[in-house]
Batch of 4 targets.
Target 1
Amino acid sequence: MTYRMVDLIQKKRDGKAFAKEEIEWMISGYAKGTVPDYQMSALAMAIYFQGMTTEETAALTMAMVATGKQLDLSAIPGVKVDKHSTGGVGDKVTLILAPLVASFGVPVAKMSGRGLGHTGGTLDKLESIPGFKIEKTEEDFIRQVQETGLAVIGQSDDLVKADKLLYALRDVTATVDIIPLIASSVMSKKIAAGADAILLDVTVGDGAFMKNIEDARVLARTMVDLGKSVGRQTIAVLTNMSQPLGHAVGNRNEITEAVNTLDGKGSPAFREFIAELAQLMLSLAGQEKSIPEILEHLDNGKARAKFDEMVLAQGGRTDGLTEALKADYQAEVKAEADGFISAEKAMAIGVLAMKLGAGRATKADSIDFEAGIYLEKKVGDLVQTGDVIARLYSNKPITDELMAEAKAAIELSDEASSHKEILEVIR
């Protein structure tokens, strides 16, 4: 059946629900170019204000999946697991979690994205490794997972064409932060990528798209239900993004922290967080492991060995990954009073890292792999006047204005406060 787009825009504007066939017609037409951007923009804004039912969101997700190729990973033995984060600051989880899970014999076939604005992208971080290639054919991608148990590559242009078009449109029409459109965007890519099971890391707080736990919970529940509705085992974790994750922010800076963690180093709290996520991912593949058993793979070299296998298989070098940053300009941020670190504002720190060169303000911007921020102290730590609490790295001058932004992003108080990484698990 043929519809008129103007009628469908009016229908949603007036708060009515779409039929599955109407959604399929719109999304198919948009992918083919018969529905123009200006009408899809109007529809996105109508959805922003009127929302979508669970049934509409599921139909939208599968309609977007149908606009591209779906990967068939059946040639890879075992339960294939995937992981997705909704984004944040200092989020190097995939770099540690994927090889850690793969070290237990669970195949991890992952397609990742690039960073934009204050959030960092896994692909950008991997490309800071000399020689690392994020592009592979479908056949080579599958072969690598068969041989090494692990691959992290860029998203294929053949997958979910409608999502690429719609995401770019939402980005310039102020319709990014609406739960049905976020959920359908994330899950259409995950479903098309072919994994049997999916762990969703839904970040919440100052440095995340979801600012409060109520919205994050609704988004997580929506995505879990979408995954289950199409036969994918799915678990979501609500994680705290009120401060950057770990100590390092910036591309090679985060590679260094990730590799140090894979070498059995790193803070106990960060190691525990990664192990808890690994425990959930392994459970999706039918393996029940204790936290001590998982941490052992960070200490005995098995997780690092799996990371090195992946890097070598994708053309990268495994030596020199923990060398100090070689930025031309470096600056220390020092405590101006005694007290406890009470806040490290993730959004402000992410924006500052971008200004130093570690991120993109637009998709066309280039990235300085050596730029970044290292947080010497974290929330709850005691500091004294003059202690170095952060270090800035850039290949362009670090101005007084940037130093002021760094100082404003880190707050002190007279009382110690705590920070919990995992806030909730939604199954």
Note: Residues 213-229 form the longest helix (17 residues).
Target 2
Amino acid sequence: MKVKICGITTREVAETAYRAGADMLGFVFADSSRRIEPLEAWNIIAELPADVSAVGVFVNETIAQIHRIAEEAGLDYIQLHGDETPEFCKELALPVIKAFTIKEENDAKKLLEYECDFYLVDSPGSHYRGGSGKPFDWRLLQEQKLPREKMILAGGLNQDNVNEAIRLARPAAVDVSSGVETDGKKDQQKIISFIQKVKQSKQGRE
């Protein structure tokens, strides 16, 4: 089971995450309280181990701007949280993670229209796209024929509920941001505990 820690803004938090076993780190280049500039991201990404992927998060950005930031920051993946079309995704030069908001059962079927490296299923946002800190009903995914090997589960996950979420949704990876924060800042102990919970769980070891 892969783990992605999103909303990275400091080298210290990044190091804590990858030392604890994170497989992907997310850097937000869209409107967010966790937004980071490309050069700041590059300073962190340049120090990452080769087996840890850097993911850039974008919302309704132009292809040219995405490519520019991806090159400046040294990204491995592009994560799209807006209204991007399947055609838009195909034009990107890097592997794509497309996010889908899940409110009802039919929402998950939209991902079948896209050809992406990963599909991120998330809760509806509050101020921003995603990042609400509230889980959606994971049972909405249970009976559906979805590419689980490409699914990243996000939305309101934390160390207390992640094992149940994995059991119900059966994703390939989990993604957390606010669930490992205290007072809006990344909490290094929560990051460690979250990753340990995932990696030590029965589903995480399969």
Note: The chain has a mean pLDDT of 91.
Target 3
Amino acid sequence: MTSAFGNLSPQQQVLVDQWLPSANVERNHSWGLVATTVLEITHAGSRFIVKAGGGDDHHIQRELHAHLNWLDPWTSRGRAPTLVYGSAAAKLIVTRYLPGELVLDSEHADEPSTYRQAGELLALLHGQTRVTDDDYERRENEKSLALLSQPHRIAAATVERLKAEIPAWPTPASALVPTHGDWQPRNWLIRDDVVSVIDFGRAAMRPAFTDFARLDVQDFRRDPKLDTAFLAGYGTDPRETAAWYRNRVREAIATAVWAYRVGDEPFEAQGHRMIAEALSSD
């Protein structure tokens, strides 16, 4: 095993050496803003991706759960990486390498056909199961209020308005489906004009419209034709007005607070814009 595995914990290094002995690191795909290590490795002539979480990571467990329970509609079509090994206790997974180019910042990021495929793929994920949760809205409200108590640079008057508004929101029962949690071009690959999906660290049961949140404030905002193409692939528009508004506000708060915490100023600015635009649409 090469020294490039040094970002892994001793337990993680031992497991990788057991699973894929004498593997070599070819490329480090780690994002850098979070304590998750993503390595492209080779072993016995095949390529794999090793993803390892840090000490306080909770994404690897979600990713492993998604692989074991929800990804078959994609993996059976070759549209998502397949799980090879995984350990929730060690916060470690190994998947087969899925070839392709990231859609983000590529020419495909502005092609309606890309978004139609992404809509079709998302419909496959969402369509597997549906449950009713009477407490989802209340929990999400509490998370947003807790975030507003953390360090951030949201204007005091805006914080005051949000702290007054959120507790007054209704908390109806919610229909939850398997969601990706970060559905946007940075988690899509394309090869020979075919779109595939990666990164399931935020996968969870949520309302279907939550997977529209990233696209709505970025790509759909840039070009409405991409919204139209996505809906043509997905089949329906789950952005019900009242619940969608509440989700927009929650996403905006989370974006501004998280981006401030990790020092991502452009993303923080997007969060502040999202807050202003959501509140102005009320």
Note: The chain is about 45% helix and 20% strand.
Target 4
Amino acid sequence: MRLIFDIAATHITGRGRQMLVAVLGVAVGVGFSIAMAALMQGGQDDFVRQMVDTMPHVDISDERRTPRRQPAEDVFATAAISGLRPRDDRRGIINPTAATAWLESWVPGRFAASLKAQGVIRYASREVGAAIIGVDPERELAVSPIAEDFVEGSFAALIAGGNNIVVGDTMATRLGAGFGDTITAVSSEGLTRNFKIVGLFHTGTTARDEGEAYVLLKNAQILSARPNAINEIRIKLDDPGLAPSVARRAESELGYEAVAWQEANESILEALVIRNVIMYTVVGAIMLVAGFGIYNIISTITHEKARDIAIMKSLGFREADMRGLFLLEGVAIGAAGSALGSLLGLAMTYALSLIRFEIAATGQEMTHLPITWSLLHYVIASAFALSSAAVAGYLPARRAAGLNPVDIIRGAS
């Protein structure tokens, strides 16, 4: 085996320029693959992290996935019900005190109950449609990152009580109102109530910044004439991965629709999976192109060393030795390219992490490219490189092993 290694080294060093080109081809492919994977994975992780941080992990509403079971269906084995008119009852989660107490006993995280009502916000002669959300400020701060999005005032100002309200800065601009002004909220029931603006937030999401207003839960209940009512419970878990199981348990016990963040963003997560498939397909294509260079060099060596192969086989070298020799040369080029490419990928990833810029159009700043440092990227890129190198080396190695030494020495080949 030591002799095989020495012969392989002699073949490689004997074609230094061609070998250098092949190694650089593999290195560039590996380096760009690592940098691309770090950037794309970083963007994906940053997107998912923002999505998980800004929305509840489980959202329980007063909706039901299926209509309530009718009493006739419990009495008769076969029943066809038509023309049924639903009861004219007020929407909301029934017995909210018991529901929140039950959730408190087992949910591994925090939750906040709220009452969302549709209404109109007025100031002087202007008005905008809005979702008026009644919350418990202390509990809301535990499940929502909105406290970090205030441009004036704070969400904690609601804790002081009274007729206070926080609104999006876009809504305030449309109304012509500002911090400290008194606006009027009109519910869909026709009830009105005056509130003082104690905070302006900017989330960067237009629908929220121009269409949401937060008040104390009791004020929302009074405004909508629904005392003690809630219609949404938002849960923030210590481990977001537990969201599907928590949602299933809550829905089976309470009977209301409970949606995990994975379910709510299923199409987005599927798109991310497809993007990863495309990314690794491109990586494989890059390594395949590099493999053609290796194949060309090993094939040329095989052709040039045909007489040497014949002599070696006549001296007792087996076909397996011939295959191993040229396969070893291909893998050696792939390994050298992978090592050099890993260093190149590390340098490129570090350079990308140093790029600084700002996006101020949405009111949010991103001062650097999202980069993920992962050993897996280096392993995958190197595995692709070594695999393509092994295949590129095996094909001419198999041909070399099948050469007949007698035919070569006689000049038949």
Note: Residues 90-230 form one domain.
